[in-house]
């Protein structure tokens, strides 16, 4: 509780830039996916793409793989563009409905994909 | 994990109406205050006021005191307008800086105020 700036507003997390492990800008946080009951942020939704011949896509990233970097004023993920290009992504309608019946399978897909890159889910 | 609609987008929580225990609309969720490290939503920021001679104010509500009501399509808090009128509130600049040095005291103020109304903080 004595840490400086321990809390951040969701409205500020949205629009925060996200950089890859080489320091290149790969996208921005578009939204957050929150567990209704516990209030735990499960995913940051990364708006990614517009390069490598990929259009803009929405990638749910497990919250734990984001690391805030003061110098870059943004989040760093330990992934390169190629890793993200192969990552699970969804369209806006699917993300609106996230957490529904099929969520268990998508949740496993996402955490298994990122498991090799970051901490395992709690 | 098998629950329907277990997850909600932050962009949808923002703008969700909030009703008091009598079913009257008291405001809307303006923003969420999130612990940077854990990703836990600590407060929902309620935009409250415009009646009882009170201008619009921003009230951090502990996440746990919000209860989603399907019929009303919004959150219900077990508080009346008078209780909220006396509750800790902050201006937008203060909320931007929430979680800084003085946060420990404000956090205690907020949770002590709402402690009598809802579950104790984790």
Question: Overview of this structure, please?
Answer:
2 copies of one chain form a homodimer. Chain A has about 120 residues and is α+β, with helices and mostly antiparallel strands. Chain A has one domain: PRC-barrel domain (SH3 type barrels), CATH 2.30.30.240. Chain A is about 20% helix and about 30% strand. Chain A is built from 4 helices and 7 strands. In chain A, strands 5-4-3-2-7-6 form a 6-stranded mixed beta sheet. In chain A, a hairpin with a 5-residue loop joins strand 3 and strand 4. The model of chain A has no long low-confidence stretch (mean pLDDT about 80). At the A-B interface, strand 1, helix 1, strand 3, strand 4 and helix 4 of A face strand 1, helix 1, strand 3, strand 4 and helix 4 of B. Strand 3 (about 25-35) of chain A pairs antiparallel with strand 1 of chain B.
Name a few traits of the molecule.
homodimer, 122 residues, alpha+beta, SH3 type barrels, six-stranded mixed β-sheet, 7 strands, 22% helix, globular
For the sheet with most strands of chain A, the description reads:
6 strands, mixed
Q: Largest inter-chain interface?
A: A-B, 41 and 41 residues
Query: For the record, what is the CATH homologous superfamily label of chain A?
Result: PRC-barrel domain
Class computed from helices, strands and strand pairing of chain A: alpha+beta
CATH architecture of chain A: Roll
**CATH hierarchy, class of chain A:** Mainly Beta
Oligomer: homodimer
Shape of chain A: globular
Proportion of residues in β-strands of chain A: 25-35%
Number of strands of chain A: 7
Residue share in helices of chain A?
10-25%
Radius of gyration of chain A: 14 Å
């Amino acid at each position: 509780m004595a840490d400086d700036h321990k809390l951040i507003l969701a409205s500020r997390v949205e629009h925060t830039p996200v950089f890859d492990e080489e320091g290149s800008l790969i996208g921005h946080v578009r939204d957050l996916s929150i567990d209704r009951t516990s209030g735990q942020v499960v995913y940051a939704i990364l708006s990614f793409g517009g390069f490598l011949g990929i259009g803009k896509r929405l990638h749910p990233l497990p919250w734990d793989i984001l690391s805030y970097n003061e110098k870059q004023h943004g989040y760093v993920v330990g992934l390169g563009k190629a890793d993200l290009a192969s990552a699970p992504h969804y369209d806006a309608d699917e993300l609106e409905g996230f957490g529904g019946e099929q969520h268990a399978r998508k949740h496993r897909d996402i955490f298994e994909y990122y498991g090799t890159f970051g901490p395992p889910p709690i």
